Amino acid sequence: MAAKILVLGASGAIAQHVIEDLKDDKNIALTLFARNINGLQEQAPNAVIIKGDVLNKEDLQEAVKGQDIVYANLIGQVDKMAGEIVKTMEAEKVQRLIFITSLGIYHEIPGKFGQWNDRMIGADLVRYRHAADIIEGSALNYTVIRPSWLTDKNETDFETTQKGEPFTGTEVSRKAVAAYIVSLLKNQEKDNHASVGVQKPGSQGDKPSFY
């Protein structure tokens, strides 16, 4: 029986790579949810497409009901969205959540790179940390993903760190983060109840190479 996977924020750049990897997999039934659904049906003809807003309870409930896995790729009020997703999943008895946040939410980046990261996105990290706290405090089987600074390079190399370990890689491609997400979706024993940093091997430095 095909695994039912809901992608929230399906028009996002990382999600687009995930969808591309999964759209022809006969063992997966995709539901794609976004505020702007333009092009999604053409990209994934076999997927169910839902136009909606995560912060609209009826939209979210319709999308979550009956799913096996929810993968959230969201921007904006991520903490408020995390709260609504957790409540809806718990109500609908859907257990598995994969949720993208940001590097730096636990002050886990040492040295000059950590200082640079705080200067650049410190204000945004409050919302991402709150989102992670909500998810980690839930009854769900979650994987919180903390990608490094994102590039559009055509590469899929990545390495991971666990919560409590130093995060040192300054960048990673969106395609590589997508490859990690696909590995989670296809192996449901991997990184359960975990917060995982994703970085490009060998990308340590004081800041990303493109700054």
Automatic annotation (TrEMBL):
Pfam families: NAD_binding_10. Residues 192-211 are annotated as: Disordered. It comes from the Bacteria. Residues 9-187 form the NAD(P)-binding domain. Transmembrane segments: none annotated. This is NAD-dependent dehydratase. It comes from Chryseobacterium artocarpi.
